[in-house]
Write a structure and sequence with these properties.
By secondary structure, the protein is mainly α. Helix content is 73%, strand content 2%.
């Protein structure tokens, strides 16, 4: 097949294959958001707890016990809360899916018209919208999935697992909460190594958040470091005040 060059572009030949020139980030957050959130929560809460106790002028043995108790209590609390939250949400979705399945069984024509009207509202011509809805509704399971997506905004084939949510929350919180305790477990007797390691961890968690935001890694890291450091400083001051008042 003959071709010609016009303005530096070849015309008349086969159409070139489209090659995407960009890739989108995971805007849903995926696994990263809950994992980083759990780790930051563990870091900030346990660091603040330990600095508050240190402000009260307690010994390193008490700080280690406090840190480990805070780790265990927070991790189990996070896991229990996450399990209950996700399980309740899943049960609600499953109840709504059962209602939708029953409606598709009892009133298939009404459900078909409802789906067609959704497509019409999005700009599809009525006849075409009805035909698309009819073809989509031929398979009952596919029809349920489409109605769930359109009406409930959920994918019935990809509901979150309460066990996975609880386990990931437990692990990420425990990992974050471990950082302020780790220097003491390795033999440190002063507070500053624990604070330093926790602040490095906060910066790292904040930088990781930049993967699911439009901010730069250093901005996100510094923001989390400042917020976590401020929480630790405030609780240290409160601990010092309480320690001197009851000492």
């Amino acid at each position: 097949m003959s071709t010609a060059i016009a303005g530096g572009v070849e015309v008349g030949g086969p159409a070139p294959e489209h090659v995407p020139h960009h890739a989108h980030r995971d805007v849903s957050g995926g696994w990263l958001r809950p994992a980083v959130f759990g780790a930051m929560d563990g870091l900030v809460s346990n660091l603040a707890l330990m600095t508050g106790m240190a402000g009260g002028n307690v010994g390193s043995h008490t700080l280690v016990v406090t840190g480990l108790a805070g780790l265990a209590a927070g991790a189990f609390s996070m896991a229990a809360g996450e399990y209950t939250s996700v399980a309740s949400q899943r049960e609600l979705v499953e109840a709504e899916l059962a209602i939708e399945r029953l409606e598709l069984d009892r009133n298939p024509e009404d459900e078909l018209r409802e789906l067609a009207s959704l497509y019409v509202a999005r700009g599809v011509e009525p006849e075409l919208a009805h035909e698309v809805a009819r073809q989509m509704s031929a398979d009952p399971e596919q029809a349920l999935e489409i109605h769930a997506r359109e009406e409930l905004g959920v994918d019935p084939t990809d509901l979150p697992s309460p066990l996975v949510a609880a386990a990931s929350s437990f692990a990420s919180f425990a990992l974050g909460a471990l950082l302020p305790v780790l220097p003491y477990l390795l033999g440190a007797s002063a507070l500053w190594p624990a604070v330093l390691l926790a602040l490095v961890g906060l910066f790292g968690c904040g930088a990781a958040v930049a993967r699911v935001t439009a901010r730069s890694w250093w901005f996100s890291g510094m923001r989390q470091l400042v917020l976590g450091g401020a929480a630790a400083a405030v609780t240290f001051g409160i601990g010092a005040l309480i320690g001197s008042a009851v000492g």
